[in-house]
């Protein structure tokens, strides 16, 4: 029984780790290589699913011997402890609960001891969300390989997809790289490029890149498991490094003094998809609602979908928000205009800009100073 597994998972299963590891022996008595998978959110669960399906093939050279993920977290109104998406997927697939490890930190002695008992020959990480110490990295003889959703050395860090969209990139991708102690700095085994359109949002792009990463991983696994990948892996060019630090809640507010294109790019990385942030409010903005008596009141909205216009010639002054077509027209910096197509008021459902505008009943809408 894994000492770092939560009581809920420990109660669900009583299989012995050694017998589960032995179950994947191939035909003719040839043992498959043990892989340990580390990941937490839904995008990582899709990678685990790919590995589990591939491992079930009769000619597969590997088996998933253990899964490592973040501990259960309190979710929903009842604040009930719920397993991560990766843990839930593993449980749904009938994976032994005592081989689902959930350490608070990957350097815990009990966890490292349990990991050594599994005898992993390779570890694979995908959005795990925990720093791996050198004592961990020293365990698997074929190393630890990470699926990172950027074209390394670009966007090293916790929020590569969100930061890339914020910067308005036209191309990004996914990299398969060896893990070293420096953040996302290991040699790159392979990468795959992906063209970005201006309307794609972070959750969609994350899913696409991890799907590409899963296919890239399966393609490269034979060379990783025979050791030849280490010879062909290319060191990263440190002179080209860019960073993608974790997002914080202050970044959710839009400032209409900036150009509309910049705000649209910021909106396309809705940060509630960031697995390390809980309760992220989305992209928010403040407007002024002026009633028939001329009395202003602050109105907070959550911005759901937007477009960017280079010019904003429909506004009568620099502050008034108008409606045209199906969008609110909010004047921004550089004479540009942000078109808000969908929005959400506090405690309300998502609505179209047209329905919101009709509900104003003649009240005036201004940019918040």
How would you characterize this protein structure?
The chain has about 375 residues and is of the alpha+beta class. It has 2 domains: about 35-245, 3-Layer(aba) Sandwich (Rossmann fold), CATH 3.40.50.170; about 250-365, Methionyl-tRNA Fmet Formyltransferase, Chain A, domain 2, CATH 3.10.25.10. The protein has 11 helices and 16 strands. It has helices spanning about 5-10, 15-20, 40-55, 85-90, 110-120, 135, 160-165, 200-225, 230, 260-265, 355-360; strands at about 35-40, 60-70, 75, 80, 100, 120-125, 145-150, 170-180, 190-195, 285-290, 295-310, 320-325, 325-330, 335-345, 350, 365. It has a 7-stranded mixed sheet, sandwiched between helices. Strands 10, 11, 12, 13, 14, 15 and 16 form a 7-stranded antiparallel sheet that branches. A two-stranded antiparallel sheet has the order 3-4. Helix 3 packs parallel to helix 4 and helix 3 (about 40-55) runs parallel beside helix 8. The longest helix is centred in the middle third of the chain and has 24 residues, at about 200-225. GO terms for molecular function: methionyl-tRNA formyltransferase activity. Pfam families: Formyl_trans_C, Formyl_trans_N. This is Methionyl-tRNA formyltransferase, mitochondrial. InterPro entries: Fmt, Formyl_trans_C, Formyl_transf_N, Formyl_transf_N_sf, Formyl_transferase-like_C_sf, Met-tRNA-FMT_C, Met-tRNA-FMT_N.
